[in-house]
Design brief:
homotrimer; about 210 residues; mainly alpha; 7 helices; membrane (chains A, B, C); Gly_transporter (chains A, B, C)
Chain lengths: ~210, ~210, ~210
Amino acid sequence: MELSLFNILDVLGTIAFAISGALSAMNRRLDPFGIFIIAFVTAIGGGTIRDILVGNTPVSWMENTIYVYLIGVVTIFAIIFRNKLNYLKKSLFLFDTIGLGVFTITGVETGIVNGLDPIISVALGAMSGTFGGVIRDILCNEIPVIFRKEIYATACLIGALVYVTLYDLNVDADIIYLVTSLIVIGIRILAVKYHLTLPSFYPVHPKSSKRKR
Amino acid sequence: MELSLFNILDVLGTIAFAISGALSAMNRRLDPFGIFIIAFVTAIGGGTIRDILVGNTPVSWMENTIYVYLIGVVTIFAIIFRNKLNYLKKSLFLFDTIGLGVFTITGVETGIVNGLDPIISVALGAMSGTFGGVIRDILCNEIPVIFRKEIYATACLIGALVYVTLYDLNVDADIIYLVTSLIVIGIRILAVKYHLTLPSFYPVHPKSSKRKR
Amino acid sequence: MELSLFNILDVLGTIAFAISGALSAMNRRLDPFGIFIIAFVTAIGGGTIRDILVGNTPVSWMENTIYVYLIGVVTIFAIIFRNKLNYLKKSLFLFDTIGLGVFTITGVETGIVNGLDPIISVALGAMSGTFGGVIRDILCNEIPVIFRKEIYATACLIGALVYVTLYDLNVDADIIYLVTSLIVIGIRILAVKYHLTLPSFYPVHPKSSKRKR
């Protein structure tokens, strides 16, 4: 593989989500192979949905063995250091956020490379960024990450919008990558640190009705 | 985009499912961007599975910006009128049912256009019709719509069977669309209104065993 | 369709998973069409993910009507004999395990045929093998099968590794199929019979923290 910045980002996001997948799996008391499979599916989820939607098949992790080996090593690492991970909580949150930021970028980038409209590229970025975490949470029977209170999908969408805006202004690709990832990661860190949330719009039912049809 | 009847139906189904997605997301107290993402995934779910299964990539919402803008507008509309929606309950149920009917049709149609066997087209129609609602419910941690008591998947399958039968009889496409959608929508409305259900076949266990292996 | 061993295996796995899907659906008291749809999605899930990931579209069940008819017949069979199924519990467990073994093989085989690296083929085999059961359990709101205590994903991964090893040694394809499926099925049967489990690695939190961020 040519070591483009795109690929480096993809690898970074893969590592980040693999760790978060391994942690969720260990919390569910899975055996090592089960941990590996959850780590794997979490890590490749975002990139896979991105590739399938644009028709880039076989999907990227299939064309390049580095992903499988990386996720294997990350799984072993996560198992060995499982009792240290509590102290690493902040780094882990950071990794998850890096994954979100990175896959948002590769999603938008893929859209642009395939000649899709900027607004479509933003949507593709948002789905690529959030899908890995969603699939991890569905498999592990946890509340999907996009429902946790802190700003999550929002960080991702704002980052994607910044990306296509800078791209439109012909800003250099490396600078776009840097700025976009810092924005996504920055928004999410600040949101969690200062408990920032956007207002939610819960419908007020005049007569209480627990469940809509 | 050429304004074919197929595209008009696709847009109608998209609007219908976007509203239902936005409502589910507001019930989970998501912020506006989260509401948009759930509305988006619900609305494009059925069409996306349809396109991916036949290999029509990039999938249709990527080739045409109207879907993203539509879903954005629908989301804003749903947020603004969230407190009126209780009175709109019946219209909403109708929208959901329209989505079911419409995506069933576009699914069957896609199968036929791709030269697939009629029975395969029926299966594709059923999956396209139900997938949007299923993905919405999985993401929102609700019981998947196909498990709610009233006839749902059944309406969809009967409609699809009627479609391929009429197609085989060389009936005009517009008439097929009209008849099929009226059948799916009609069956579902009557089923809910009169609490019609098909018999279920629950296995009687001689010795009670809570969970099969 | 040419009656290759690959196709026979694919049909066997389809039947096995269709039965398990129909059983889960009947336990959820679905109506006959609902039972059919769950049986269908469970049965074609593994093969569909396999085909989509490598870009083999329209996916294989679309090119061949035998799958739809088979699943229809299996559904009817499962409904008729639902009260006998308790006595068939062991055969059913066997069917589920056959499905796991068979789709693991067709996944690995598809990877090799498409010129993918052996380790990628193993990953593809593992995902194809487990995906049918996972989608059934998610739709039926049960704990995903890979989380049940007995060795499941592990059997699948070991089988896939044996497959690529034998393939590398130029062993005859039929023998590889036989050995691999016997290994997957054997491991799972022995694991359930003797309650064999691999050690799990649950992180010990010095201060109890119910949920990681």
